[in-house]
Amino acid sequence: MNANEDERLEYFRTLLAERFELAPEDLRPDARLYEDLDLDSIDALDLAIVIREVTGRKIDPQAFHQVRTVGDVEREVRRLLVNL
Amino acid sequence: MILTLGNRLDSLRRSTLAGLCSIGFGAVALFGVCVLLPGLLLITPPSRRARRVRGLASVGFRILIRMIEGCGLAKIELEGTETLDTEGCLLVANHPSYLDAVFLMAYFPHVNCVMKPALLNHPLFFPFTRLGGYIAGSEQNPLKLVESCRVAAARGDTILIFPEGTRTTPGKPLHFRRGTAQIALRAELPIVPVVISCDPPALTHGRPWYRMPSRRVRLVIRFHTARAITDFAEESPSALPRMARQVTRGLESYFVEHLASSTRETTHLS
Fold this sequence. Notes:
The complex is a heterodimer. Chain A is mainly alpha-helical. Helices cover 61% and strands 0% of the residues of chain A. Chain B is α/β, with parallel strands linked by helices. Chain B has one domain (5-269). Chain B has a seven-stranded mixed β-sheet with strand order 1-7-6-2-5-3-4, with helices on both faces. Chain B is globular, with a radius of gyration of 19 Å.
């Protein structure tokens, strides 16, 4: 992970907090998107859009389906950033 | 309210009447499904079918309302109907009782609504719920739901929606889910707030027909002026997920405020 990737990840967290009205402290790695952070099925679509905005790439639907926690999403974002 | 013997007998009498109305409506629905609906389908061209089916359903609901009002179970009062134009709008209503949905389906002859899967598969009503061109409720494909609403509104349908997603639980605060806001924002539909009060509570969540109250139910339905959903936002336009959250809160506060003032009015009258 280089500095640019760290920056992008930080930007991702900022967008997440802003778009879904979350406090930075809510974004713990084990925080569950649906149960803890109150995201619903339509938010999931917007989340995919945020991922695209930050990484410039679309997340694989299969991978996205497995995502449950903030940690899961960040891992996917990292993966997409690294493969650039 | 003290539960005197008189009250209990009244309650029992009203519950019996409610039961009879349910059976009566069941018979009407059965006749509708077996005789009237096939007849209607035979003489209606496909393009007009869905609308006519909804019109027929509305007749059934009107009969039910007549029965309910006729035997003194409920009295329904309307306000704000003078300049009411709901074409292409979302009718956004709170949902204290079964009666409010029944009444709104009766009052607006071709009203559309989001049909729950349970109703699409209902053993008695499914011919109506499936042929009426109602919007299919779908958790799996929310954007399709939004698009269906957009299309329906574009052809002039009035779309009834309950932000709570179910009947209000008495004693618990109003809780609006975000679906209504998402639909209104993404399909860009004006909304008509419909504030409904039901006193005393009847046919609420957890109160079936055999637990009717001991006095006549007064259902007051107030139509407010149509407005943009963004009117309920706290800040100027921002990203959709954020807007949906703000607007849902704004909508909820609006209803809480207006329900509180209507309760105050009722208390003063009685």
